[in-house]
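ARCHIVE RECORD
Type: protein–small molecule complex
Small molecule: adenosine monophosphate
Source of inputs: curated submission
Record status: active
Notes field left blank by submitter.
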Amino acid sequence: MRFTEFNFSPEVLEGIEASNYENATPVQEQVIPPIMAGKDVIASAQTGTGKTAAFLLPVMNHLLNNHVDGQVGALIIVPTRELAIQISQHIEGLSYFTHLSSIAIYGGNDAQNFVAEKKALQMGADIIVCTPGRMIAHLNMGYVNMKGLQFLILDEADRMLDMGFQDDINKIIKTLPAKRQNLLFSATMPPKIRQLARQILHEPVEINIAISKPPEKIIQKAYVVYEPQKMPLIKKLLREIPYKNALIFCSRKQTVKEVRRELKQAGFIIEEIHSDLEQSQRESVLGAFASGRIPLMVATDILSRGIDIDTIDLVINWDVPGDGEDYVHRIGRTARAEADGAAFTLIGDKEQGKFAAIERLLEKEVEKAQVPAELGETPEYNPRARNHQGQHGDRRGGHPKKKFFKNGPGRR
Ligand code: AMP
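STRUCTURE (tokenized, with ligand):
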């Protein structure tokens, strides 16, 4: 479906064209019409599906024709600063040819930003993107004016509840006018999200796009190893696979630091990102990564959702993530939009059960790649037996004659 079929204002269409979007993605096709018809919407859609533009475009289009001076038009609440920044960049791109104003309100930045945020919350802005904590800080000061609010959008609602933002969200909603249009986006739909939806939404149209499965075009492989084999394997992978931007995920920030230190010592140009960094440091590291100055980054799951850098063509999971959704989100950082990508997971010998659970969720067995023979013996992938018997069933590592990554991502 082409964007011209949606009845958008010419300025909005210009922004779409400048963003090089040709056809609407499936989520956009399904979500845009009910939003334009004034309905509340609850949609399960993963990042990478084009969900941000799916709500931004109709909201922008409406506000263009229904702008009210001195009022906030739309409030988008998101779980993380990174996502707030990313959505505000999306708004800037798509609203370039309009007169709509917008601002991102999130913690960890300087006093000057606080003043600009206060001004927007007092004097109005068409679209505000905020993280819950920072918004509460402003609300507590007593000057926030939400009287004219037309849209409330909760993005990555499941993530927000997981992060414990339910009370903050409720507090923010109490300050909004009762008559407004509500949009709720969530990667998953656990019962607590349904509960939240019942509280907030009015006769919503329900749209299910999320299949909780990664895009088919991501080449997925897993390496079954003993823990001490992970570092030599990752070095080998990073030396042998050509990549533009590679992202390594670790579940713990201590591991992030250790992995980065060791890879740096081995000569890789690499940075790390996790919650110990100041907001400004995080932004500068992300900027350096996005621009290609730093080709390699190690991160905690702080980056596993929402971050959208087109040039990431390789994701390596240092460890198996906690659940299937996290796996899908981590590997979804690659192969964004039209690009291709590969995602490799290192399965330590104690992580086999966790990985098997992820495979069940994906309804797919991820290919177990050959570990190079020089790394020695590797465990057998036998999660069931392991659960019952412990550490059995070793086998020889990779076949020495078999070429590494025969059909792997080197072709891209
Ligand atoms: P999202 O799911 O909102 O994180 O979007 C994922 C990526 O798809 C972003 O880089 C968007 O700019 C891009 N995108 C969104 N809509 C379209 C579209 N209709 N055509 C091509 N790319 C799109």
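CURATOR ANNOTATION: The chain has 15 helices and 14 strands.
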